[in-house]
């Protein structure tokens, strides 16, 4: 009987017996790798991976949504042996709770949520911030509302997400017009429920941030009663992280910053294209997303002393209003500057 012809390019074995031995050896090897992976809790595809950066994000956080869609951060972290897991939250307060219980390692939120979280004992560190965006949050009324000024909110029902950036905006705008939270009826609702209550006229006004703000303006003709201008609030956006991660893997944080800076620059230069990428993921029209993008700044920087001072002012205000149970020092949540 003629023997089987050896073919290098086809990987045909030189004999049936030798082929069987190679096949069995291969099966045993694959099984061993799989068994080891199960035993150590690591999948074969990620056997060389050091860890996984779990990022808490909100669907409204357009830059993170863009980075998630583009996969740019995954490419940045791969050489460091890290993968990325994106964990979505409805708003900043819920994201901070996720960071506090160890469900995520890094988050991106506005000014107020970290203050409420720190007052509740959460352990995290401020690692960066985006420049002020005072037009990216506002007090809205319906287009046919008789309310013409913030002063007209006295006695009215105002919807807002408790503990979010807009909480401080409302406090400062009321203060500017001689009112306080005691002069209105706050109705604490998450963004989706707030929009429903606002549109059905169950509340008189809605305090909300972009892109939800832009969506309400576009879809139902909501009118901006007041926003963070002029010089009412900064509306900074903050990058936060679990302290241990920052200390152990500073190169991972550096990679996150580098990718955020480069994607932010690309976004601002290509607003329409960025909006087209982000819109389907946010479930919003492209024009709405583009409007919102124009009102935000995307240029992450290390925490600066004046930014810490601004956060301290918000924290002191919330303590005076008894919105947080104790006084806090923002500096306690800020890591020492790199030498």
Write the layout of secondary structure elements.
Elements (H helix, E strand, L loop, with lengths): L15 H25 L10 E8 L3 H9 L1 H6 L4 E8 L2 H9 L5 E5 L1 H8 L5 E6 L6 E5 L15 E4 L4 H12 L8 E4 L2 H9 L5 E5 L2 H9 L2 E5 L9 E5 L1 H6 L1 H20 L1 H12 L3 H10 L9 H16 L19
Parallel strand pairs: 1-2, 1-3, 6-7, 6-8
Antiparallel strand pairs: 3-10, 4-10, 5-8, 5-9
Structure report:
It is a single chain. The protein has 339 residues and is α/β, with parallel strands linked by helices. It folds into 2 domains: 51-131 and 236-333, 3-Layer(aba) Sandwich (D-Maltodextrin-Binding Protein, domain 2), CATH 3.40.190.10; 137-227, D-Maltodextrin-Binding Protein, domain 2 (3-Layer(aba) Sandwich), CATH 3.40.190. Helix content is 45%, strand content 16%. It has 13 helices and 10 strands. It has a 5-stranded mixed β-sheet, with helices on both faces. Strands 7-6-8-5-9 form a 5-stranded mixed β-sheet, sandwiched between helices. Helix 4 (92-100) crosses helix 5, helix 8 (212-220) packs across helix 12 and helix 11 packs across helix 12 (286-295). The longest helix is centred in the N-terminal third of the chain and has 25 residues, at 16-40. The radius of gyration is 26 Å and the shape is globular.
